[in-house]
């Protein structure tokens, strides 16, 4: 990641000014940067005031023993109270908290804040009844149904850290997480709907429970929501129906105030780079970070906006921007159970039209899959309610950004490209919709209160126009506190690379352009070295996606006798491009050559029907590297769909 990194991204010169109407009324204006820079801790304290505290803190930040931070020291609060009760107490109990949309058409529920409060209180009482106490871990393995939100808030209410495991994960993946955090109770359902058909969940819990038992860990109770009505095996000593335990429980529950540093949840990372890490978030700082960023970066107007984040609840985005951020802010939001293409491809746009969604937050992978299908589908819907669009999960290719803004946002909507991680808890680098002139492909600048830099090997900031390592130079309230049960790994993973400066190193590479704006280039582990030139996967992928026939691309470096590493690309074509024609590979190689330079020309380009992705839509390049280097494919347990690798491998074996 040095100056010799070749660049096509920085040639991007499209700019999108904030619309005057948004700029004038923006929650965060330009002065926030100055105020935060003048006194960072005072700025964060001001943000913490957004919450209701039972006992106020006596110290904003304790950084006496880095990298172990304590924020809002001595403060006490209840996260669930902040997300639910206080809105009811303020007279907004009838406001819709969740417009829940089930996958089967017409299976919908609107849940007000008052109803949510009752349901969360009942669930909290039921969990207590099942023996869950403060500090006990509860695993949540559910589809995208309201009970998932209720379960999380019920855990928070009684101080039992939750760990949400993506419903698409296998029994093995679930078992390893249950063991790692020693979960006492699992909340699951009989099944969920996936592309029009019920698919079972409970059997995976049974299998995972048996597996953990053989390793000496006992899951005491399994609370089962009835969603699909399918048959389930039942163990009377362990299994309890949600409707038996929760529906009859009292709706009165007094939330206890917990220490600001009380553990709120453990979330395992995607595992794109290795074994998933159990990231620990605590209460006061985390909730402050989510609430502030959700309000500021999305410019949330509580009484008029309808917000929708399409992320799964089993991903950190589902935690910060579907549960804790929006609910702490008293927002009205959409929650959708299913896939974007069920029962038909316009389902998301239909939902935006039906509910008048004004703020929409999704991932580049989804945008690229819509680009693949063509604009005729979204063009059929009225999406004029949208005013702000967000992107998260990967660098967004400039072409995808412009398509998103143009086709979905009708050219009215700022796009906030938000860079953050499970570890950071909340958005760190992003444009502000009322302030920033957006550049497609750039996450722009750290938000007010956050200090980020791009540094070289020695930890010195690189000059504008150069690339390096993306670091956070100051602690922030929603930062991870440790890796669950492994302080050593916490230090090693994030704080050892630049220990001299005390910087948090995120694992990503980035570039600063001539204006000092940040372009995230993906993980430093993915950077290729071709004949001594360092090439970023993101840049070559963006070059490929800028070709009119290409919808998605994944690039990896494979060992090469002559050049050290060679560029291997996997591409998905747009539907309208058919099979791309005979010369497609030649055409694409030529295109990359022209866009970046001869050194970046892929040695090999494979047209594939799908790419291996995590639940959050990230491409798992390490698996593609295995394919490109003709190795056996590694651990696929965190793939959203593990059959994808067979599809790719078989296509390649048959020479397609
Ligand atoms: P693991 O650490 O186990 O590999 P993961 O890093 O994929 O898992 P997440 O915490 O969900 O799990 O992902 C964070 C990463 O996603 C960031 O480090 C970055 O690489 C990428 N990312 C997220 N948002 C953006 C963005 N707006 N632009 C560029 N990259 C992004
Ligand atoms: Mg990571």
Attribute tags:
single chain, 656 residues, alpha/beta, seven-stranded mixed β-sheet, disordered N terminus, binds adenosine-5'-triphosphate, binds magnesium ion
Summarize the structure.
A 7-stranded mixed sheet has the order 5-4-17-16-18-19-20, sandwiched between helices. With 656 residues, it is α/β, with parallel strands linked by helices. A hairpin with a 2-residue loop joins β26 (528-530) and β27.
Can you describe what's shown?
The chain is α/β, with parallel strands linked by helices and 656 residues long. Helices cover 31% and strands 22% of the residues. The chain has a seven-stranded mixed beta sheet with strand order 5-4-17-16-18-19-20, sandwiched between helices. Strands 7-6-8-11-12 form a five-stranded parallel beta sheet, with helices on both faces. Strands 21-22-24-25 form a four-stranded antiparallel beta sheet. Helix 6 links the parallel strand 6 and strand 7. The longest helix has 17 residues. The two termini are 34 Å apart. The N terminus is likely disordered. Magnesium ion binds next to loops.
What helical percentage do the residues reach?
25-40%
Q: Assign the structural class, choosing from mainly alpha, mainly beta, alpha/beta, alpha+beta, or little secondary structure.
A: alpha/beta
Q: Span between N and C termini?
A: 34 Å
Characterize the largest beta sheet: strand count, sense, and whether it forms a barrel.
Answer: 7 strands, mixed
Radius of gyration: 24 Å
Strand content: 15-25%
In the sheet with the most strands, the strands line up as 5-4-17-16-18-19-20
Mean of all residue-level pLDDT scores: 94
Instruction: Point out poorly predicted stretches.
Output: 1-6
Tally of DSSP helical segments = 20
Which ions and ligands are bound to the chains? adenosine-5'-triphosphate, magnesium ion
User: What's the count of strands?
Assistant: 30
């Amino acid at each position: 990641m040095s100056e010799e990194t070749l660049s096509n991204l920085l040639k991007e010169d499209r700019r999108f000014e904030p619309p005057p109407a948004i700029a004038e009324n923006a929650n965060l204006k330009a002065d926030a940067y100055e105020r935060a820079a003048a006194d960072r801790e005072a700025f964060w304290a001001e943000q913490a005031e957004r919450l209701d505290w039972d006992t106020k803190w006596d110290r904003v930040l304790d950084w006496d023993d880095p990298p172990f931070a304590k924020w809002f020291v001595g403060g006490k609060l209840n996260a669930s109270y902040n997300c639910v009760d206080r809105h009811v107490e303020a007279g907004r109990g009838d406001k819709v908290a969740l417009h829940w949309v089930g996958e089967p058409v017409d299976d919908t529920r609107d849940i007000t804040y008052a109803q949510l409060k009752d349901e969360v209180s009942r669930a909290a009482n039921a969990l207590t009844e099942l023996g869950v106490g403060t500090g006990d871990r509860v695993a949540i393995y559910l589809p995208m149904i309201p009970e998932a939100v209720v379960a999380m808030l019920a855990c928070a209410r009684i101080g039992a850290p939750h760990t949400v495991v993506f419903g698409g994960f296998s029994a093995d993946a679930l078992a390893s997480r249950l063991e790692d955090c020693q979960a006492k109770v699992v909340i699951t359902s009989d099944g969920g709907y996936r592309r029009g058909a019920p698919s079972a969940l409970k059997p995976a819990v049974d299998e995972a429970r048996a597996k953990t038992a053989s390793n000496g860990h006992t899951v005491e109770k399994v609370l089962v929501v009835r969603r699909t009505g399918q048959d389930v095996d039942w163990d009377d000593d362990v299994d309890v129906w949600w409707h038996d335990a929760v529906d009859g429980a009292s709706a009165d529950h007094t939330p206890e105030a917990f220490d600001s540093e009380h553990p709120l949840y453990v979330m395992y990372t995607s595992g794109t780079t290795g074994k998933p890490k159990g990231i620990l978030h605590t209460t006061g700082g985390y909730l402050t970070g989510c609430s502030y960023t959700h309000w500021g970066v999305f410019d949330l107007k509580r009484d008029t906006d309808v917000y929708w984040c399409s992320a799964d609840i089993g991903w950190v985005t589902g935690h910060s921007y579907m549960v804790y951020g929006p609910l702490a802010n008293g927002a009205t939001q959409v929650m959708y159970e299913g896939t974007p293409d069920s029962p038909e491809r316009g389902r998301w746009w239909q939902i935006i039209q039906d509910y008048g969604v004004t703020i929409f937050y999704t991932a580049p992978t989804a945008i690229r899959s819509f680009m693949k299908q063509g604009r005729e589908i979204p063009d059929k819907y009225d999406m004029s309610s949208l005013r702000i669009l967000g992107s998260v999960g990967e660098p967004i290719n400039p072409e995808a950004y412009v398509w998103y803004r143009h086709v979905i946002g009708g050219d009215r909507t700022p796009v906030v490209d938000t860079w953050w991680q499970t570890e950071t808890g909340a958005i760190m680098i992003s444009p502000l919709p009322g302030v920033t002139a957006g550049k497609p492909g750039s996450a722009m600048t750290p938000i007010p209160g956050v200090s980020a830099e791009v540094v070289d090997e020695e930890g010195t900031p690189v000059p504008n126009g150069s690339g390096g390592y993306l670091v956070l130079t100051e602690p922030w309230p929603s930062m991870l506190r440790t890796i669950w049960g492994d302080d050593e790994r916490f230090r090693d993973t994030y704080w050892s690379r630049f220990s001299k400066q005390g910087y948090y190193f995120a694992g990503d590479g980035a570039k600063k352009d001539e204006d000092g704006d940040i372009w995230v280039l993906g993980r430093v582990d993915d950077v290729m070295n071709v004949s001594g030139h360092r090439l970023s996967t993101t840049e070559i992928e963006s070059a490929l996606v800028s070709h009119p026939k290409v919808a998605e691309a994944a690039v990896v470096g494979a060992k090469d006798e002559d050049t050290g590493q060679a560029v291997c690309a996997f591409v998905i074509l747009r539907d309208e491009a058919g099979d791309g024609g005979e010369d497609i590979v030649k055409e694409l190689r030529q295109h990359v050559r022209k866009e970046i330079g001869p050194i970046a020309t892929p040695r090999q380009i494979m047209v594939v029907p799908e790419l291996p992705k995590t639940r959050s839509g990230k491409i798992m390049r390490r698996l593609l590297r295995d394919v490109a280097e003709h190795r056996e494919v590694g651990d696929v347990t965190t793939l959203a769909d593990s059959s994808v690798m067979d599809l790719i491998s078989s296509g390649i074996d048959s020479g397609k």
